[in-house]
Amino acid sequence: MIQKLSEHDREKLQESLAHSGQKVTAQREIVFAVLLAKRDHPTVEDVFQRARESMPGLSLATVYNCLETFVGCGLVRQVNHERESTRYCPNLAPHAHFRDEATGHVHDIELPPEIIQSLRSILPPGFNSETIEISFHGRSQESAPRSTSN
Amino acid sequence: MIQKLSEHDREKLQESLAHSGQKVTAQREIVFAVLLAKRDHPTVEDVFQRARESMPGLSLATVYNCLETFVGCGLVRQVNHERESTRYCPNLAPHAHFRDEATGHVHDIELPPEIIQSLRSILPPGFNSETIEISFHGRSQESAPRSTSN
DNA sequence: GAATGAGTTGGAATGATTCCAACTTGCAAG
DNA sequence: CTTGCAAGTTGGAATCATTCCAACTCATTC
């Protein structure tokens, strides 16, 4: 069961939505809360399942709508990997993604500003980029058994 | 109509396929030739249309099969952008992609090795990345009218 | 020249996403 | 109030890229 939004998060939601002429609804609150509660880059289906625990009547279409709305007003980012289901991420700081091919998990990798700068600098003249997406693909030790010595 | 493969390209095809125990077929030759002929990151459907001009009986399933085979033996790369159709790219040098949101075109951006190095260096310990994908998203001046003064 | 196996084929199946028309809700104007 | 509107929600149908599958082709080997 998902916790209600903190006052702070509700305000963020309210402001971002208002900014593009939209309203806070019960469904949007829950979907947003689900995203904040477990930042494991859930798919639409994941969000749907989790949100339904708090609101059994919620429909899948609404989850799609809410997520699209959030992306539109800059509250969350989409994360695509190959042709798999789209995942969603409420981390707004500039970051890359690391996709563990063993587990399928996605991890955020912080992106230092100088890297972003140097990436921009490799664009030939005449190319203006608004967004840069970086994704690593490999294996991490997350699922490997931890050394038992500590 | 697609030109036949050069001797050099046919050899590359033959070797890469042989390397993973597969054979050169007429269909694979044509599909490969299509990729080399126009490096505009075609979709499967694009490749299908172009290849059919030379081989009208070719089936879409075969184009999917050929492209998958090529990816498997390292002859071409897949390029995904959001949830659009997968595109294919025979440029094997390390490069990023720039996606022009006005035209939908994809451009290759050369990636200097030191950038790749510095990107690898931001991964926390325990993360081993085999591949890094970088895609820019914005507008280029490709379709803007050139200055008429030169 | 029959058997084998890789490759090809067309059509059916899948699965994520989008579309749509009906329904609900909150609110503002009469 | 209560009527009407606009925004949001809903479930189911439609879409579309991709995958699956079983039948077929073809070159090779015994």
Could you please describe the fold and organization of this structure?
The structure is a homodimer of 150-residue chains. Helices cover 39% and strands 21% of the residues of chain A. Chain A has 150 residues and is an alpha+beta fold. Chain A folds into 2 domains: 7-79, Arc Repressor Mutant, subunit A; 93-138, Dna Ligase, domain 1 (2-Layer Sandwich), CATH 3.30.1490. In chain A, the strands form 2 sheets. A 3-stranded mixed beta sheet of chain A has the order 4-3-5, with no helix packed on it. A two-stranded antiparallel ribbon of chain A has the order 1-2. In chain A, helix 2 packs across helix 3, helix 2 packs across helix 4 and helix 3 (44-54) crosses helix 4 (60-72). Chain A is globular. The two termini of chain A are 33 Å apart. The interface between A and B is medium-sized, with 35 and 35 residues. Chain A binds a DNA duplex (30 and 30 nucleotides) through residues 22-23, 25, 27-28, 43-45, 57-62, 64-65, 83-86.
Topology:
The structure is a homodimer of 150-residue chains.
Chain A: H1 7-19, H2 26-37, H3 44-54, H4 60-72, E1 77-79, E2 87-89, E3 95-100, E4 106-110, H5 113-121, E5 127-140
Parallel strand pairs in A: 3-5
Antiparallel strand pairs in A: 1-2, 3-4
Helix pairs in contact in A: 2-3, 2-4, 3-4
The first copy, chain A, binds a DNA duplex (30 and 30 nucleotides) through residues 22-23, 25, 27-28, 43-45, 57-62, 64-65, 83-86.
